[in-house]
Amino acid sequence: MVTTTDPSCATTRRIIVLGTGGTIAGRASAPGDNIGYTAAEVDVSDLLQGIDAPPGVTLFAEQVAQLDSKDMGFAVWQALAQRCSHWLVQADVAGIVITHGTDTLEETAYFLQAVLAPAKPVVLTCAMRPATALAPDGPQNVRDAICLAATAGARGVTALCAGTVHSALDVQKVHTYRLDAFASGDAGPVGYMEEGTLRALRDWPSTPQEQAGAAGALAAVIAQDPTRWPRVEIVTSHAGAGGGLVDALLRERATGEARAVQGVVLAATGNGTLHEALEAAASRAEAAGVAVLRATRCTQGRILPTPHANLRDAGALSPVKARIALMLELLVQAAPR
């Protein structure tokens, strides 16, 4: 269902608010319960009730999905990319806000930045408390996100939580329950929203070719059935790690498994280091035609090149974002030319 706060939007700028569910749309049986709620029950149009748009801006709400973000999947990502693409080309649309669950917000943000690289702002926002809480954090986050999306010069995909603006390339969820649950590592935030005004600290997100996996991948992403997107798995290196998981994935390929693995991201220790048994298995996988990429488990810093590294690295990308980058790379490689 699509709703608008003002049907006469011909002479104003529009901010499009796309709903996907999450805690921000959750309900609990008691106002004092902040963890025993059911996510994704409140319509996005209801989340806008009582929120005034900035002067000269009209809000337009559209429900794209309604799910707990732990269950986020490729089909919703494709739908979001399509709806963002549709709205961003509209001359009167100043920007987009996406309400989202916190669990996979960083993955959705990175995916959208990689495939859209938008010149207009796309702001993902969320909540750590359900809509029924005594003091819900969702309404303020939505208001801040709308103001950010209406900010002159804003561009790229960002995430906004507790007044802090994070780049899609750097944002990570770092706390299980605090209202300010996100951080940007040593890159730092893009800025802060202060009473509806942005205090910028650094440049807006941009997507270098090596980080995005493929600039201009949007056409390929939208054209492909998401059930056929390349399967990329994450395997973690740790004390006592072995190569059994990687070898099991290789056996699936050998038996002709319909959705056999095409890529593996190794969540490596420190500066991209791997347990020797896991590294040996990863090298066997690469020799068998599986794309392999190392990403660090560390929440700050990036993998710096070393002279004896046998497997390529993902630089500053976290393992979950490296998985998306590798998936997009494989998707574009397989797309018709």
From TrEMBL:
Annotated keywords: Hydrolase
EC number: 3.5.1.1
Record keyword Membrane present: no
Gene3D superfamilies the UniProt entry points to: 3.40.50.40, L-asparaginase, N-terminal domain (3.40.50.1170)
Keyword presence, Hydrolase: yes
Record-annotated active site: T23, T102
InterPro entries: AsnASE_II, Asp/glu_Ase-like_sf, Asparaginase/glutaminase-like, Asparaginase/glutaminase_AS1, Asparaginase/glutaminase_AS2, Asparaginase_C, L-asparaginase_C, L-asparaginase_N
Domain L-asparaginase N-terminal: from-to ranges: 14-202
GO molecular function: asparaginase activity
Record-annotated Asparaginase/glutaminase C-terminal domain positions: 231-330
PANTHER family, sorted: 60 KDA LYSOPHOSPHOLIPASE, L-ASPARAGINASE
Entry similarity comment: Belongs to the asparaginase 1 family.
Entry protein name: L-asparaginase
